[in-house]
Amino acid sequence: MKELTLENKREMYFMMRKIRMTEEKIAAHYREDNMHTPIHLCIGEEATAVGVCFNLSRTDKVFSNHRNHGHYLAKGGNLKAMIAELHNKASGCSGGFGGSMHLVANDVGFPITSSIVAGGVPIGTGNALAQQMTGSSDVTIVYMGDAASEEGVVYESIAFAVLKKLPIVYICENNLYSVGTPLEKREAEGFISNKFTGMLPVVTIDGNDVLEVQRVTNEYIEKARGGEGPAFIECRTYRFRDHHDTKTGVEAGYQTQEEWDSWKAKDPILRLGSELMLQDESFATAEKNFETEWKRELQDAFSAAAEDSLPKTENIAKNLFA
Ligand SMILES: Cc1ncc(C[n+]2csc(CCOP(=O)(O)OP(=O)(O)O)c2C)c(N)n1
Ligand SMILES: [Mg+2]
Questions:
Q1: Which residue among 102, 105, 120, 289 is least enclosed by CB atoms within 10 Å?
Q2: CA distance 123 to 121
Q3: Could you tell me the distance, in angstroms and rounded to a whole number, from the CA of residue 144 to the centre of ligand 1?
Q4: For the segment 61-85, what is each residue's pLDDT rounded down to a tens digit?
């Protein structure tokens, strides 16, 4: 695999910052009650979105879940369409009918998002079968949480993907919690990876190190693309906010301050940022320019969403498949 250039690292860094700044703005405005949608912030988990999607082409497909803002943006989803969707407006990426858990960007390989825990796993597996049957060279990525990996359909899907050697990589974002229930109350230590070994290649990595995520997932994505079949990558990470609220899990009462602080010290953005600061003289200026520009884009997106109209009732069944 080619060595990453400084430009590649910058690109990943600024994409992580875009996701963080976007979600911080969403959090800051959420209480105004103009977004009639639950929100599941991925603040702290940006490296898994960016490290994986960096390796993909526009036509590769990503299937996400309820915590999808980062995946959507990293895959190239349009910001204005996302913010409008969170405000349930007609120009939203799901026409204003889906809300935060159903972001879609068909033009960049983000075809559908299911809010059913593990719902995207069989759908993505079916997509990989379609890719194989049509002779496409595209791959499928399915993101799932640690709790999603406990659903029976994951085993069924993986067994099928292995049988058919499908071009798919399963990315498990293990943030140690299912809503407020910690992993150690649900599974024996190390179990997430252990339960799938024997079925397919399984790797556990530091999900807060975007360069490690990029490097390892690139290897398995290219293997899948080359016909070698699926893999399962467990990315150990942590969310700095509550399951579906803007406060932290500490404030919500199920995370300890000590645990939160230990993960904050491994913040994926600060880690790559401090590395770039040392390696790249023009980085500080680039960062300032980026901040000004992205703040403006965010402001434009929020203003456009506020001005847009609600979707028309007669369109409610327009995108339903029966
Ligand atoms: C089948 C199903 N069961 C329960 C829920 C309610 N629910 C939504 S998210 C969630 C927890 C998911 O945890 P995890 O998969 O670890 O993802 P995370 O939220 O940590 O990113 C639950 C139980 C649901 N949406 N679907
Ligand atoms: Mg989780």
A1: 289
A2: 5
A3: 9
A4: 999 999 999 999 999 999 999 999 9
What is the CA(67)–ligand 1 centre distance, in A? 9
Residue type, 183: L
Complete DSSP assignment for 230-276:
-EEEEEE---SS-SSSSS-HHHHTSS-HHHHHHHHTT-HHHHHHHHH
DSSP string, 39-94: ----TT-HHHHHHHHTT--TTSEEEB-SS-HHHHHHTT--HHHHHHHHTT-TTSTT
Question: CA gyration radius for the chain?
Answer: 19
DSSP string, 10-27: HHHHHHHHHHHHHHHHHH
The binding-site residues of ligand 1, defined as CB within 6 angstroms of any ligand atom, are 66-67, 115-117, 145-148, 175, 177-179, 243
CATH number for 6-238+248-305 (one of 3.40.50.360, 3.40.50.410, 2.60.260.20, 3.40.50.970): it is 3.40.50.970
**pLDDT digit string (tens) for 265-285?**
999 999 999 999 999 999 999
